[in-house]
Amino acid sequence: MSNNKKKITWTAEKYQRLLAATIAAHPEIKINYNHVAAMFGEGATYDSIETRFRNVKREAKILQAEIESGSRPAVAPPTPRKRKLANGSAPSTPRKIGGAGRARKMATVEKTPVKQESTQEEDSIVAWSGSSDYSD
What we know:
Protein name: Myb-like domain-containing protein
Structural class: mainly alpha
Radius of gyration: 39 Å
Shape: elongated
Largest sheet: none
Region (Disordered): 68-136
Order of helices and strands: HHHH
């Protein structure tokens, strides 16, 4: 049932299978049923948690046997990164054409006026022409 094109519908059975797959993938983990019962709450006891995990461990053994027998691949198929086109190439990202989307107002920077100094050459030109910027 591992078809990577289908979306998983998460039911209670799928969650149990996920837990079983986790147990099968990590056989080195030893579960402390007393701690699990305390975390679970709702009156759960060591025995009730351990009994529930019997079913999960049984399913984990079945999943592990399927991998070892070769009826299911040991490696999950990779998640596709991009959708493929009919010709086999990946589609390009669509680009926005000007005017689409929200317009941004460019920040304006006010320039501080700079006082210009006159050079000696400019002073001599003004003196020679006999004109002055100052009126009396």
